What we know:
The chain is α+β, with helices and mostly antiparallel strands.
Amino acid sequence: EIKFRPSNRVKSGDVLIVLDNRELLAQQREAMASLAASEADLVTRRTDYERVKMLRATGSASMEELTRLEGAYRVTAAQVMRAKEMISRIEVQLSHTRILATADGVVADRQAEPGDLASPGKPILSIYDPQDMELHANVPESLATGLTLGQLVAVRIDANHLAANARIREI
């Protein structure tokens, strides 16, 4: 979903684009279910390990059984950590499905439409700050000698009836 069109004003923080996140949300639900199952299994494995550890201290359980349960406990703890990391990765990916305006401005161009495939490096919207525009103009040599860096000059663009003051940054 692209929420703005050319000439629309945007403010910093506005949601410009919302990418399809249904697949990521399904992955997130799957990872959360995996975490819940791993955490439940971890409780059982910890209880079994602690019980056999106490029995081993009294000589009622073999070292082999204790080692086996300790290994199962550690594997399950690692599965819990893996599931948490997977959820964190998915949350980062989900944060990239909402593209926000980083500054106030005006939409200059929309290079994509809903349903188009977004890819890294391919522009979707172009935004400019009307307070920070730059004009490149050819000036006859006879007039250029009277210009200085930093000088304030009147600018008029007849095509869009724009009149403004501009500061010379380069000659």
